[in-house]
Every structure is written in structure tokens, then in C-alpha cells.
């Protein structure tokens, strides 16, 4: 719990040290064990890193400019992406509460998110039959005396199997697509809220994702965020910021992989020369560097627009698209550069390759990002 805002330079320095000294050394072990990194989340919370971007009024670190947040996320993720996700997950719960909730609702939940015993939180939109097409979700919220009864199944939800608090998106008007979508805060203790199965993943393995089930789950009216039917527009606003943050996540992974590949290429010898002196190797790494630098500029541009209060939907999508693809290319290039050593399970580059792929899928796949940019470029 903080009572003053972070100095941003100090925060970036603290994050960089934490990533290097705490996260990087344990990254591979967590990937193998798939255990939730509770100890590191607790350490980060004690330093104020879990809630650095929440308002000071709620005990957070007050870093509300997206331009600052992306710098912090890139540093944290350089240490390890899935542990960074576990550390910053509370921000993804807070985002719809800040976007749609009343001051009273923010006061109810956000100070809890700023404590060192930070709750496990989730945001549940996706369902077995509704992913990219979020407006097709079928979880229902039926009005009853004093509140709503929620019914439905959610899938691919980060933290699902451990969530204490969750923002659930449901519809009050089935069949009306985005028109009926409404957000609710659901507590793990609510009867009918069931944490489901944890899903095995290819990468990002210590940050769990799984299923949630709502079975006649009653939530009182004061847990509804915003008005009925406001959930979808709130969600789009949340997505815009989240996509820029996710771009920063990809940049952290990509920078880590490039650092590793460059160091290896300078040392490793073949045919009597450093492999860095072979053009095939150096050009591959140059291509990676250019992609990463381009993606960082797009990410900073989207963040700057957001901070200036300008529309940034298309720019956020472009940043996520470029950064996630840069991360997949760079991690692949790093594995290739390390050769056999990069393919072993004890090498970080193969882990980053698997971690990076997720960023091309969640929070809107690369196809959906292209769709968003196409709408802005070409209209529809
Ligand atoms: C590890 C993980 C964690 C996640 N965490 C969360 C979470 O916390 N909360 C949450 O709500 N969701 C979460 N998700 C869900 C994630 O956002 C979805 O997986 C993603 O939006 C894609 O949906 P889908 O998997 O159903 O794919 P689909 O929508 O079925 O898409 C399948 C393929 O079709 C393509 N496609 C679909 N529509 C179009 C189109 N119009 N044009 C072109 N191509 C198209 C897609 O790009 C993709 O390649 C998570 C997913 C994963 C894997």
C-alpha cells in the first residue's frame, strides 16, 4: 500500500533490478514445474510492483500514463513473461473496475488489490464457443430481486483456478450480441462460482489459465459495473490499453532473446570464426533488431496517443501486432542462432519462443489486430 506516487525513473530501475536478480534466475524452474510463482508475486507486491499503475487514492503507485507503464512492463518481462503476468494480473481486474465502476465500487475492491497479500484476480470474457467474436458470448445474467443470477461457462481464463475475484462479462439480453453485454464482479465465495480445470499450455506455463463455471450464481446489483449493456464498450476501451501493455510484454521477451542471441553469436566459433561474422547469422539478428525497434516505436506512439487523450484503437492494434510478431521472429532467430544449445530444455531461448507465441493469440489474435487496423485504414 503506497500513499505517494512512484518516481518513474526509480520505478524503472527497481523493476530492472528485480527482473534481473529475482525473476530471471527462477524463470526456467517455474516453466518446468508450472507452479504459480506465489513467492515472487509476494516479493513484487512488497516492493509495490503489483499495483504500480493503480491510483494513489486506492493505495497504488500512481503510474497512470501508459507511456510509463510500457517502459515498466518491458523491464519486468525481460526477466520473465509469465511471472510478470502473475505480478501484474491485478491490473487487468482493476481496468474494467476503473473504466466502468463507480467511485464506491473502486473504493471497495481496489485498495485490496494494492495490499502485499494481493488477491488472485481474473477477467472472464472468452467462452468455449466465443473467442475472437466476444459479442457472441452466451453466459447469461438474469435479473432477479436484488441482483442477477449468472449462468454459463468461461474458458482460457488467466488465473481461473485460483481466482479470488473476477470480472465476468455476461449478457442480460441473449441473442442481442454486444447490446446486452454487462460486467459483474464475482467473488470466489459466491455460491455457484466454480473454479474449473486448469488447462495445460505450450508456453507461459507458470501463469495458469483455465475454466470457470457459473451455476445459478447470484450477484447483488451493486456488483454490476456500469449500466446494463455498457460492458462491451467498456471492454473495448480496456482492450485498447491492454493491447499496448501486451505489446510491451512482447518487447520484453524479444529484447531478452536478442540480448542472448547476440552474446552467443559473439562467443561461439565455427569454421575458425565467430558465428557473428557469418552474414547469415548477423543479418538474421539485424532483421530481429529492426523488427523490435519498429515495434517499440509503434508501442510508444500508441501509448503517447492514449496519454494525450486521442483515439488510439488502431495504433494499439498495430503495436500489439508488430510487437508480438517481432517477439515470435526474434525468439525463433535466437533458437536458430544458438543451434542445438537453443533447443535444449535448459535453454531460455526455447522457453521464450514458446512464451512469445501466446501474445499473437490472446487479447485479440494477429488476424483480429489486422481487422482492427483495416477498419481504420479502409472503413467498412
Ligand atoms: C493462455 C491464454 C490465456 C487467456 N486468458 C484470457 C483471459 O484471462 N480472459 C479471457 O476472457 N480470455 C482469455 N484468453 C482467450 C483469448 O483471448 C482467446 O483465445 C483469443 O481471443 C482467440 O479466441 P479463440 O481461441 O476462441 O480463437 P477463435 O476465435 O476460434 O479463432 C481461431 C482462429 O481463427 C481466426 N479468426 C477468428 N475470427 C477471424 C476473423 N474475423 N478474421 C480472420 N481470422 C479470424 C483467429 O485469428 C484464429 O487464428 C486466453 C487465451 C489463452 C490461450
Write a concise keyword list for the protein shown above.
11 helices, 380 residues, alpha+beta, 4-stranded antiparallel β-sheet, 4-stranded mixed β-sheet, 53% helix, binds flavin-adenine dinucleotide
Write a brief caption for the model.
This protein is of the alpha+beta class and 380 residues long. Helix content is 53%, strand content 16%.
Describe this structure in words.
The chain has 380 residues and is an alpha+beta fold. It is 53% helix and 16% strand. The chain contains eleven helices and ten strands. The chain has helices at residues 8-33, 38-47, 66-79, 81-100, 103-113, 231-267, 279-307, 313-338, 340-343, 348-358, 366-378; strands spanning 121-124, 140-144, 147-158, 165-171, 181-187, 193-198, 209-220, 224-225, 269-270, 273-274. A four-stranded mixed β-sheet has the order 1-4-5-8, covered by helices on one side. The longest helix has 37 residues, at 231-267. The model has no long low-confidence stretch (mean pLDDT 97). The structure holds flavin-adenine dinucleotide. Flavin-adenine dinucleotide (FAD) binds next to strand 1, strand 3 and helix 11.
Helical coverage, percent range? 40-55%
- Low-pLDDT runs of 5+ residues are none
**Number of helices, where a helix is a run of at least 4 consecutive DSSP H or I residues:** 11
On the 0-100 scale, what is the average pLDDT? Answer: 97
Shape: globular
Q: What is the end-to-end distance?
A: 47 Å
β-strand amount: 15-25%
Biggest beta sheet summary: 4 strands, mixed
Spatially, the strands of the biggest sheet line up as 1-4-5-8
Number of strands: 10
Order of helices and strands: HHHHHEEEEEEEEHEEHHHHH
| Content-based structural category | alpha+beta
Amino acid at each position: 500500500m503506497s500513499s505517494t506516487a512512484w518516481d518513474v525513473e526509480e520505478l524503472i530501475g527497481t523493476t530492472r533490478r528485480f527482473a534481473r536478480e529475482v525473476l530471471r534466475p527462477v524463470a526456467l524452474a517455474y516453466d518446468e514445474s508450472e507452479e504459480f510463482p506465489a513467492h515472487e508475486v509476494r516479493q513484487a507486491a512488497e516492493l509495490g510492483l503489483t499495483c504500480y499503475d493503480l491510483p494513489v487514492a486506492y493505495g497504488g503507485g500512481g503510474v497512470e500514463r501508459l507511456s510509463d507503464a510500457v517502459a515498466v512492463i518491458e523491464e519486468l518481462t525481460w526477466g520473465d513473461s509469465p511471472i510478470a503476468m502473475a505480478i501484474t494480473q491485478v491490473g487487468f481486474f482493476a481496468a474494467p473496475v476503473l473504466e466502468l465502476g463507480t467511485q464506491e465500487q473502486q473504493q471497495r475492491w481496489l485498495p485490496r488489490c494494492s495490499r502485499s497479500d494481493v488477491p488472485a484476480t481474473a477477467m472472464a470474457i472468452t467462452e468455449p464457443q466465443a473467442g475472437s467474436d466476444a459479442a457472441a458470448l452466451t453466459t447469461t445474467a438474469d435479473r432477479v430481486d436484488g441482483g442477477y443470477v449468472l449462468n454459463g461457462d468461461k474458458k482460457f481464463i488467466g488465473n481461473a483456478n485460483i481466482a479470488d475475484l473476477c470480472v465476468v462479462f455476461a449478457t442480460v439480453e441473449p441473442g442481442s450480441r454486444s447490446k446486452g453485454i454487462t460486467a459483474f464482479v464475482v467473488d470466489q465465495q459466491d455460491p455457484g462460482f466454480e473454479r474449473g480445470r486448469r488447462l495445460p499450455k505450450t508456453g507461459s506455463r507458470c501463469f495458469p489459465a483455465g475454466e470457470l463455471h457459473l451455476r445459478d450464481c447470484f450477484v447483488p446489483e451493486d456488483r454490476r459495473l456500469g449500466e446494463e449493456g455498457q460492458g462491451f464498450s467498456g471492454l473495448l476501451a480496456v482492450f485498447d490499453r491492454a493491447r499496448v501493455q501486451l505489446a510491451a510484454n512482447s518487447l520484453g521477451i524479444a529484447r531478452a532473446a536478442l540480448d542472448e542471441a547476440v552474446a552467443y553469436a559473439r562467443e561461439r566459433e565455427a569454421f575458425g570464426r565467430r558465428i557473428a561474422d557469418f552474414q547469415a547469422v548477423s543479418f538474421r539478428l539485424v532483421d530481429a533488431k529492426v523488427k523490435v525497434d519498429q515495434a517499440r516505436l509503434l508501442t510508444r506512439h500508441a501509448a503517447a496517443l492514449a496519454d494525450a487523450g486521442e483515439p488510439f484503437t488502431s495504433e494499439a492494434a498495430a503495436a500489439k501486432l508488430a510487437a508480438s510478431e517481432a517477439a515470435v521472429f526474434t525468439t525463433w532467430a535466437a533458437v536458430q542462432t544458438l543451434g542445438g544449445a537453443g533447443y535444449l530444455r535448459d535453454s531460455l531461448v526455447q522457453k521464450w519462443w514458446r512464451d512469445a507465441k501466446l501474445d499473437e493469440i490472446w487479447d485479440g489474435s494477429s488476424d483480429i489486430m489486422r481487422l482492427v487496423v483495416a477498419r481504420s485504414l479502409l472503413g467498412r
